[in-house]
Specification:
- The chain is built from 18 helices and seven strands.
- With about 425 residues, the protein is mostly helical.
- It has three domains: about 60 residues, Rubrerythrin, domain 2 (Single Sheet), CATH 2.20.28; about 190 residues, Orthogonal Bundle (Citrate Synthase, domain 1); about 110 residues, Cytochrome P450-Terp, domain 2 (Cytochrome p450-Terp, domain 2, Orthogonal Bundle).
- A three-stranded antiparallel sheet has the order 5-6-7. It has a two-stranded antiparallel ribbon with strand order 1-2.
- Helix 7 runs parallel beside helix 8.
- The longest helix is centred in the middle third of the chain and has 26 residues.
- The structure holds acetyl coenzyme *A (ACO).
Length: about 425
């Protein structure tokens, strides 16, 4: 591969070009500063690769998403969430034996330490479940402290990963039960991952939960679709925090916090809030579109646009099919679904959205699906976190497996005051 040449101040610098397995090319600038004194500046990392990764491939222009080479469409239809989690973390689909071991590990780690239950009592009923989730995940480092060694220990990592994937679901369901003032429901060992979550969320001593196979399947697909998305805001956070060699639980906690924001995973809750706003304020869809286009307004059409997908988000297409299926099966008469579909049509035919390639993203449909499942809107981002967890773990592992290992530390262009002397307060 030919080097790229940078000409600056009368000199030429040869910069190696790196090529990925799908033909993506990058200019390696790691030595640029040593040779020329220059750094690169890319606010918001719009065009900066932070690592080489073999986990997830996205082609945003062609609407392609693959985990470890497998198309997302096949995984969402044919795989299970634990199997996809194994694939992401360990790089291959599990054999029967590997799947049995992984599944057993998830089952054995599904309960949380009884003492941790007291944490829930300390949270106000109004606490956002994302705040509870991040706190509880970080607290795992307190209750399961054998989490990191100087020598990489495969068995310790395997246990930490399984613990997180299994317990996050229990913590999430318990935070919901706490918010509605009901006793927690312990996990059942005979239920699969998604069914177990729904059971812990919705079963109650006075009203047993009526499990529906298509709801379980839809949840399975939702979690798979969220399981990784290469170097997005929360995943980059997990890598950056993890690069300080802090333990896995705390790195994941940082990822959960990053995901909470409305421009990232928090968008699924914002979509429903927006649709409810349109319904309750009697806004027309047209007015809403105009407001989203108005540069003097801070309003954005949540669930539209993506940093990487400049074509349809393939995850949104799969979710739309799941939505159609549930709407038909349960004969859903939900004004928010109608508003969402009208909004989608209006945006897809509007020049502003067409020119900027703003299509519905995964968050546009996920919120509506969760609503049909009976999940309250402040839990949507929690569901996103449960889904994204295997990806965060896989990326954390890949970073630790890659040598030479370096702490993440970007540079900056300083634009502040130059040297000046301190002035005592009476002289100011
Ligand atoms: N509604 C209205 N205008 C939008 C929207 C939107 N949802 N998204 C982007 N735009 C406009 C911007 O105003 C900008 O217009 P301009 O060129 O006239 O200034 C142009 O489209 C490009 O937008 P950027 O903000 O530069 O795009 P960026 O790649 O930085 O942001 C993002 C991507 C954050 C997803 C953005 O599209 C957005 O805010 N969408 C709404 C929030 C959302 O749905 N987030 C979920 C993302 S998916 C996920 O995290 C799983």
């Amino acid at each position: 591969m030919k080097d790229a040449i940078l000409r600056y101040d009368g000199r030429e610098y040869a910069l190696p070009v790196v090529e990925g397995s799908e033909g993506e090319r990058a200019v390696d600038i790691a030595n640029l500063r040593n040779d020329s004194g220059l750094i690169t500046l890319d606010v918001g990392y719009q065009n900066t690769g932070s690592c080489k990764s073999a986990i997830t491939f996205i082609d945003g222009d062609r609407g392609i998403l693959r985990y470890r080479g497998y198309p997302i469409e096949e995984l969402a239809e044919l795989s299970t969430f634990p199997e996809t989690a194994f694939l992401l973390i360990y790089g291959h689909l599990p054999s029967r034996e590997e799947r049995a071991v992984f599944s057993q590990r998830l089952t054995e780690n599904s309960m949380i330490h009884e003492e941790m239950l007291r944490f829930f009592d300390g949270f106000p009923l109004t606490a956002h479940p994302m705040a509870i989730l991040s706190t509880m995940v970080n607290a795992l480092a307190v209750y399961y402290p054998r989490y990191f060694t100087d020598d990489w220990e495969v068995a310790t990592f395997d246990l930490m990963a399984a613990r997180l994937i299994s317990k996050i679901r229990t913590i999430a369901a318990y935070s919901y039960k706490h918010s509605i003032g009901e006793p927690v429901v312990y996990p059942r060992h005979d239920l699969n991952y998604c069914a177990n979550f729904l059971y812990m969320m919705f079963n109650s001593p006075v009203k047993p939960y009526d499990m529906d196979e298509d709801i379980v399947k839809a949840l399975n697909a939702l979690l798979i679709l969220h399981a990784d998305h290469e170097q997005n805001c929360s995943t980059s956070t997990v890598r950056l925090v993890g690069s300080s060699m802090v333990n896995l639980y705390s790195s994941i906690c940082a990822g959960i916090c990053a995901l909470w924001g409305p421009l990232h995973g928090g968008a699924n809750q914002q979509v429903i809030d927006m649709l409810e706003g349109i319904r309750d304020q009697g806004l027309t869809v047209r007015k809403c579109i105009e407001q989203a286009k108005d540069k003097n307004s801070r309003f954005r059409l949540f669930g539209f646009g993506h940093r990487v997908y400049k074509n349809y988000d393939p995850r949104a297409r799969i979710l739309k099919d799941k939505l159609d299926l549930l709407v038909r099966k349960f004969n859903v008469k939900e004004p928010l679904v109608d508003i969402a579909l009208e909004l989608e049509q209006a945006a897809l035919t509007d020049d502003y959205f067409i020119e900027r390639k703003l299509y519905p993203n995964v968050d546009f449909y996920s919120g509506i699906l969760y609503r049909i499942m009976g999940i309250p809107s402040d839990m949507y981002t929690v569901l996103f976190a449960i889904g994204r967890l295997p990806g965060w773990i896989a990326q954390w592992k890949e970073m630790h497996d890659t040598l030479p290992f370096r702490i993440g530390r970007p540079r900056q262009v300083y634009t502040g005051e130059t040297l000046r002397s301190y002035v005592p307060i009476d002289a100011r």
